[in-house]
Amino acid sequence: MKILVAEKVAKEGLLILEKDPLVELDVKTDLSREELLRIIDSYEGLVIRSATKADRELLEAGKNLKVVARAGVGLDNVDLKAASERGIIVCNAPFGNINSVVEHAMALILATCRKLVKADTSIKGGAWNRSIKAMELKGKVAGVIGLNKIGGGVVTRLKAFDCEVIGCDPYISEKRVQDLGIRLVSLEELIRSSDVITVHVPLNDETRNLIAAPQLQQMKDGVILVNTARGGIINEQDLLAALESGKVGAACVDVWSEEPPQSEHLKKLVAHERMLAIPHLGASSAEAQINVSIDVARDIVRFANEQPMEYAANIPRFDSSLMGQMRPFLRLVNIMADFVSQLADSNLNKVTFTYQGSVAEYDCSPITVCGMAALLNNKVEQDVNMVNAALIAENMGIAVEEVKNPAPAAFANTVTIDIEGPGMRRTIVGTHFEGQPRVVRLRDYQVDFAPEEHMLVITYQDRPGMIGKIGQVLGEHDINIAAMNLGRQQKRGEAMVILSLDSPVPSNVVDEIGSVIVASFIKYLHVLKARPEQ
Ligand SMILES: NC(=O)c1ccc[n+]([C@@H]2O[C@H](COP(=O)([O-])OP(=O)(O)OC[C@H]3O[C@@H](n4cnc5c(N)ncnc54)[C@H](O)[C@@H]3O)[C@@H](O)[C@H]2O)c1
Ligand SMILES: O=C(O)CC[C@@H](O)C(=O)O
After folding, report:
1. b/e map of 353-382 (b: 16 or more CB within 10 Å)?
2. Is the pLDDT of residue 308 over 90?
3. Which phi and psi angles does 127 have, rounded to 5°?
């Protein structure tokens, strides 16, 4: 798998990639956008930081791309929708640089309160200005917007400075707020009451311009504002105006809507005397760079080795503590979907995944998506995976339903896939027994077989000698039967036989068996997903 590392990442991660025999590594960190667009189609993986825009244009040019790894937290420079449509997995390193940014935010809050940069510039200019007045945090109100990883870390540090910390985050749990031990307030209240405001939310349509002229207007006179999250969350033009009017006492910005800042208003903002301007250095500690580089490298190696990735952002995944328990169901549903999709010869209108037993107590969406991917892979030209399965089903007008029933049934846990199309319905029920996937119902027949790579499914009118005839035809063509399962509802009624074979069954042999026993249905299935795991 050819991987392009397009931005500088720490050597610790590169070493991990170099060591993996399945990875071929190219480190090219000085490419222009045009050069990158020209060569990207020869790579299956791309590693970036925040400077490379993995937008639709780049992802479309990367015809062979399978994974884009962002060595850092923010995914705002990656078009997740475009990646998902193309089945490209996007992963990041959501934890590796958190501590670095938390400490950075604290350093900037303190440096701004203490006017340290002004003091430094003044003494370096030969002055001895002891009239520079700082503001203490003690006794002040510090407002933290966004209370998860970085915001939460900033809250804990701020509390050590004896200030009242208040926070705003409409999506955080009560438990998290209790653990942080702060007062949760509305954005309006935070804005009105805080002496210092620090921003830690992602940049998206909801948070772009979260703080603009109307909010700045409601703030306390002389408020201190710090943004280490993303440029654009605080409207930069409005911030400049508020600094100029004196409404904002001082500001510190680490992240910019344009990096590096080029436009006139940004240059003016950078140059403002009460602005501490930083060139996006939140994650630039030695420790953070090693962490994120290792995190993305490990995920790429997992991907190359067909192991579940830890930090894939556009694949539904289990909590890592559940992975061991749930992985057998992924294999089971993969095999069942591969099997049953080959029994359906018309378009699909609806697919229902039913989970019965204790498995239904968990989030089953990763199993459903995995099953949909296996189903659709047999139906469409495009390569379908867990990233694009839901989108492709939606585009094809296939309704996907998930039903969960935790009540115990005959088997500890079962998965049922019902597929429906015009005048067609197929049902398969599976479980795993002693660690092996088994099919326990097909249509309305109770069966019990372990799916294998080569299988024959036949229904016919039950009468003596039929099994012998099937065996004879297969024998004449040197096809060995590995296992046989017979399902029947009543004596001499319709019977279903499912054969596992050691080799493929050519279509002329299928036709011959069909005519010898006058089969009402016969189909050879090549169940690729049932191949033994490596
Ligand atoms: N300066 C840097 O170098 C650097 C490095 C890493 C991350 N970051 C940025 O820091 C920010 C925070 O990162 P994180 O890892 O803590 O993210 P996170 O996803 O862990 O937390 C974000 C929090 O913001 C909350 N939120 C979302 N919308 C909100 C809204 N409208 N109002 C209030 N809260 C809202 C979410 O509920 C969540 O709790 C991101 O923008 C990220 O890109 C910057
Ligand atoms: O790559 C960087 O240094 C910036 C990273 C940071 O903004 C992030 O989102 O993790």
Report:
1. bbbbbebbebebebbbbbbbbbbbbbbeee
2. no
3. -90, 160
The whole model's pTM is what? 0.79
Distance CA 141, CA 219 (A): 12
Q: To test ligand 1's pocket by mutation, which of 95, 169, 185, 289 has the most ligand atoms within 8 angstroms of CB?
A: 169
Cβ-in-10-Å burial (0-12, 13-18, 19+) of 339 comes to buried
Q: How many CB atoms are located within 10 Å of the residue 113 CB?
A: 21
Give the tens place of pLDDT for each residue, 192-210: 999 999 999 999 999 999 9
For ligand 1, atom 33, the nearest C-alpha belongs to 169
Positions marked catalytic: 230, 259, 280
Q: Which domains are assigned to the chain?
A: 2-96+288-304 (3.40.50.720), 98-277 (3.40.50.720), 320-529 (3.30.1330.90)
Measured from the Cα of 204, ligand 1's closest atom is 28
**Residue 45, helix vs strand vs coil:** strand
Separation in Å, CA 507 to CA 243, 483, 516, 523? 79, 20, 14, 9
Ligand nearest to the CA of 180: 1
Cβ neighbour number for residue 395 with a 10 Å cutoff: 11
